[in-house]
């Protein structure tokens, strides 16, 4: 069978391509931008890649075309497929029919933490010799690739609430039919898809209705929107994460270090063990608790899961240290929602304050890049999310439909806004001092900001 993928270089669609190849199919695909690292990863698998959306790419007519959710009517290849009645489907639907329908699916959903929790869960199952399949929307550093078919019934998938395709406006995750479902959190996001939080809750309710009675739903008990959604109907056993409380079916953590790098894990009041790892942040503790609980449902003892996390390496772009120059640390983080930004900066603040030997400042550099951010939906809460930073630097991208400079009046710390990446880099370089931590936050490439900043710092301090 010949499968052709439209939008193949996205992380999700690239994962579909890798799995299709492992199933023995001939796989080809095209994208507007074919570039590393996904292009090199796919080429190494023997997948044919083509630049641009040109109808001649379909001259050797495939048996089926898998259409990415970035494709819209008017795209020449979409029109070609429709006009000639070439069989087509979406990535999530293809995955259900060819991979997931006979598997024990462990789906990780929620507004924040999906990639990290999916990676943790996959690593725990791997550490326990369960050889799971997985599809993760990021680069998991405990593995060589972001997706694989696996050798066991277990399949971990990052379950995104974004829509499926131009012809299927349901959330992707309704196609996955999980037995184990993690809902990390729930907030309003994706304003280009959803009108309000109730739209998002409706999609999650559809997902919950599909979890069997021998399954499990894990979620935080203090998330109002999740609890409202569960109250619409849940026919599956549940377990909760709670900041406090030792009730049956309740998980909690006890921090032993303020930055979250060491903590105890409890279930139903009983100590399960102590996690001592390289990650920081309360949000990562919550992610870990969800991963441990989901793995336990699949048969992995909590003790083994805790051992696995000691060897877990976080996915790329999650508070990833990109380099250090003259003791100025530059971090890359995917945060692009006020809550994620706040939690990231809280974690960094707690981390630097553990070292009392010297003053350590935290710089926040932000590119508002998601559709929701660019539209200004979160602009009234953004300044508050930046409160833990000592200085704030914001990029005014050409597609941002509001003035980021308006945030200056709401921020209590020094604030700089620029519409040029090079100028913003220089603004950071002029102010950075030894012992500073610079956290660069964007869900895109940010014009190579991290590399440019490290290069400029070396020129300043190392000559």
From TrEMBL:
Residues 108-295 form the Mur ligase central domain. Its EC number is 6.3.2.45. It holds the Pfam family Mur_ligase_C. Pathway: Cell wall biogenesis; peptidoglycan recycling. The keyword Transmembrane helix does not apply. GO terms for molecular function: ATP binding; UDP-N-acetylmuramate-L-alanyl-gamma-D-glutamyl-meso-2,6-diaminoheptanedioate ligase activity. Residues 2-98 form the Mur ligase N-terminal catalytic domain. The keyword ATP-binding applies. InterPro entries: Mpl, Mur-like_cat_sf, Mur_ligase_C, Mur_ligase_C_dom_sf, Mur_ligase_cen, Mur_ligase_N, MurCDEF_pg_biosynth. It is an enzyme of class 6 (ligase). Keywords: ATP-binding, Cell cycle, Cell division, Cell shape, Cell wall biogenesis/degradation, Ligase, Magnesium, Nucleotide-binding, Peptidoglycan synthesis. ATP binds at residues 110-116. Belongs to the MurCDEF family. Mpl subfamily. This is UDP-N-acetylmuramate--L-alanyl-gamma-D-glutamyl-meso-2,6-diaminoheptandioate ligase. It comes from Thalassotalea algicola. The lineage of its organism: Bacteria, Pseudomonadati, Pseudomonadota, Gammaproteobacteria, Alteromonadales. The gene is mpl.
